[in-house]
Amino acid sequence: DAGITQSPRHKVTETGTPVTLRCHQTENHRYMYWYRQDPGHGLRLIHYSYGVKDTDKGEVSDGYSVSRSKTEDFLLTLESATSSQTSVYFCAISGRVGSYEQYFGPGTRLTVT
Amino acid sequence: DAKTTQPTSMDCAEGRAANLPCNHSTISGNEYVYWYRQIHSQGPQYIIHGLKNNETNEMASLIITEDRKSSTLILPHATLRDTAVYYCIAINTNAGKSTFGDGTTLTVKP
Fold it and tell me: Pick from B2, B27, B19, B35: which is nearest to B75 by CA?
């Protein structure tokens, strides 16, 4: 399995509080991605990174920000959590230019009350 | 990226081949077809990808029609552990991003 971990694995927070999720990889892969998955649906891309300090928006980026200060870590921040952001968040990594072969982390289940 | 259409659900008998279709009629020449699967609540797992030629690996085979408007993922001898949601995506890999649709829920039955 690819060396990719996510923390925390579960989190319950209140509306309006900031939340940061962490994705950590040991594969030295260039590309990293954050997705969210709502019950019964596929994954939707939030943000992705194609290198240190290089990030771009995905399909559902509103309300989320990211940072990547070093290759191994990609942080996803909810500045002010809302109930609509209750979801499972997956991080993925990809190593090869021109390839979309991604490896996914175990996911973080976030509940905003 | 081209939109893909997959059946919502399919059943397959254990030991038989599972053939999962995907329609991507608006695919462009530089877009690849990728398949992933997601078992229960785990992170998705890469299966296979192709551009225009048929592909095979240890997990599955991918058949892409000559006009590239559709493809079929084949699991040659399905087992109960192949029960999962299967996602087909069409992506220009130079674009660096894509989104997974709702996929096909494959249920392998004894």
Answer: B19
